[in-house]
Amino acid sequence: MDCRIRPWQTEDAENIAEVLNNKKIQNNLRDGIPFPYTAEDAKEYITAMLAADKEMTYAFAITIEDKAIGSIGVFRKDNIHIRTAEMGYYVAEPYWGMGIGTSAVKQAGKYIFEHTDIVRIFAEPFADNAASCRILEKSGFQCEGILRKNAFKNGKILDMKMYALVKEA
Ligand SMILES: CC(C)(COP(=O)(O)OP(=O)(O)OC[C@H]1O[C@@H](n2cnc3c(N)ncnc32)[C@H](O)[C@@H]1OP(=O)(O)O)[C@@H](O)C(=O)NCCC(=O)NCCS
Question: Which secondary structure element, helix H or strand E, spans residue 91, and what is its range?
Answer without folding.
Answer: strand 84-91
